[in-house]
Amino acid sequence: MFTKANEIASLTKKFNEINKQQKGSRSYCQIVGFEEFDKKENGATCAIHFHESIHGMERNSKFEFLDENHIVQYLKAHT
Q1: Model pLDDT, residue 43
Q2: Could you tell me the residue ranges of all domains in the chain?
Q3: Nearest 5°: CA angle at 63, between 73 and 8?
Q4: Beta strand extents in 1-79 (DSSP E only)
Q5: Predicted local confidence at residue 1, as pLDDT
Q6: Exposed/middle/buried for 48, CB within 10 Å: 0-12, 13-18, 19+?
Q7: Nearest to residue 59, comparing CAs of 51, 49, 68, 70?
Q8: pTM (2 decimals)?
Q9: How far is Cα 6 from Cα 43, in angstroms, rounded to an integer?
Q10: Which residue in 39, 48, 68, 75 has a CA-CA distance of 20 to 30 Å to 12?
């Protein structure tokens, strides 16, 4: 379980507010979940799941991170 869960939750809320769909736009990006897993070959141990709409084309994506500290750094850089 994430030890920085409160900080991640707060930053996620801020990220989703900043990147929500705006009136008149079909583009947005929202964080929809997190995942922890055993260390992969690339060193990743966790991921953020996104739902995106780019000019009306929807997709789901995932960014993998080495650890939760890197998730916090990513979220701070994008909020």
Answers
A1: 97
A2: 5-77
A3: 40
A4: 28-36, 46-54, 57-65
A5: 65
A6: buried
A7: 51
A8: 0.89
A9: 24
A10: 39
